[in-house]
Structure formats: structure tokens, C-alpha cells
Amino acid sequence: MKIIMLGAPGAGKGTQAKQIADKYSIPHISTGDIFRANIKNGTELGQKAKKYMDQGLLVPDELTCDLVMDRIQQEDCKNGFVLDGFPRTIPQAEALDAALVKIGQKMDFAIDVDVPDENIVNRMSGRRACLNCGATYHIVSIPTKVEGICDRCGNSVVLRDDDKPETVQKRLKVYHEQTQPLIDYYKKQNILKSVDGTQPMEKVFADIVAILGE
Ligand SMILES: [Zn+2]
């Protein structure tokens, strides 16, 4: 069961990926984790990646793909894996496919957690954070007991810059330009499955299980 998660930032694909990993006992693989592990262990690929990151540069697609390929060929991936945050662009998807072909493998599912932009902007603009103790809230789903005041430490809670509509809109623009074309890419390969990400989290997950099988 080799799965790619697709979806806009804030659509909840990371949460779904974790649940898939738990239910099917397969690793949840994010590029951030792979980079950190390789740098920590001082691998050759990790040292190469670190050179770019230290200069504040993006790690090139080919190197990222090498790191992902190295990870998915480890023992714990023999029954499958969930890729979260990679591929992000068409060139990355093509590099991944080419590398998989070389080892006689292919992806089985690309699951798109579909949420319209305006829902994402609304969701994010409802987030509140306490800058003193780090607690996070949401004005609708996880409200503070007293409006605007952190339950844990009594400081005021704020809307972080990252969650402000203009910041979210910018991230969504990048997503539409670079990542959304992957939806057509995987549709053409007949492995795309879309789920309605506006539903409650448990319902989204139930829909995914219906696709993957019990
Ligand atoms: Zn607090």
C-alpha cells in the first residue's frame, strides 16, 4: 500500500496521513523528517542536503528524490508507506516515478483531501495561540473558556501572522501554481482518489478507509 497524500496547506492531510499510518501499520514519511534523520546520522545524502539548507537554499528535486527513495527502500516500508509533503511539484513526481520504475515499483494511491480555499482561510483565521505558553485554540472548535484569554496561563491569545488571511492566501497561491497540477498528473495514472475534506475529521478518515479497504 504505497500512498501519496495531496491537499492544500491547512486541508488536514498530515492528520489523515498519521491516522492511515496507524491503522495500516505503515510508516508516515514526511520530507522534513527524512532531512532531519539523515542530517542527524551524518549520511552522505544528509551532508549534501545540509549544504543547501545552511545556505537557506531549497534542496534540489533530484537530491530530495534520492532521500525519499533511500527511505522507502528501508525494511519498515516493505508493506507500504504514506508520503506526506512529497512530491510537491510535477518535476518531483516525475523524478519519483522514474526512480520507482527502476526498482520495479509504482505508487498505488494518491489521496486528495479536497477543501475549498475559503474554508481553509476561515479555519486558519479562527486559530488562536498563546505566545506565552504555546497553547493553541480555535474560536469554533476549541474555544478558550474566557474569550481571548489562555485557559492554561491567563495571558491573551492572538491570531498568529502565519494564520492571517493574507499569509494563508499566499501559501494557497503557491499550492495552486505548483502542487495542484499533481491532481491531474495522478488522475491520468488512474490512482487519484478525492475525499471531501470539509467534513469532520473522523468522516474524512472513514472515507479514506472505504477507498483503501479495511
Ligand atoms: Zn498560555
UniProtKB/TrEMBL annotation:
Region (LID): 126-163
Broadest EC class assigned to this enzyme: transferase
Binding-site list for AMP: 31, 36, 57-59, 85-88, 92, 160, 171
Residues that, per the record, bind Zn(2+): 130, 133, 150, 153
Stretches the record annotates as NMP: 30-59
Pathway participation: Purine metabolism; AMP biosynthesis via salvage pathway; AMP from ADP: step 1/1
Chief location of this protein within or outside the cell: cytoplasm
Record carries keyword Transit peptide: no
Gene Ontology terms for molecular function: AMP kinase activity; ATP binding; zinc ion binding
Compartments, as annotated in UniProt: Cytoplasm
Catalysed conversion reaction: AMP + ATP = 2 ADP
Keyword Glycosyltransferase: no
Superkingdom per UniProt: Bacteria
PROSITE patterns assigned: ADENYLATE_KINASE
Record remark: domains: Consists of three domains, a large central CORE domain and two small peripheral domains, NMPbind and LID, which undergo movements during catalysis. The LID domain closes over the site of phosphoryl transfer upon ATP binding. Assembling and dissambling the active center during each catalytic cycle provides an effective means to prevent ATP hydrolysis. Some bacteria have evolved a zinc-coordinating structure that stabilizes the LID domain.
Function: Catalyzes the reversible transfer of the terminal phosphate group between ATP and AMP. Plays an important role in cellular energy homeostasis and in adenine nucleotide metabolism.
Assigned protein family: Belongs to the adenylate kinase family.
Protein name: Adenylate kinase
Native source organism of the sequence: Roseburia hominis (strain DSM 16839 / JCM 17582 / NCIMB 14029 / A2-183)
Gene from which this protein is expressed: adk
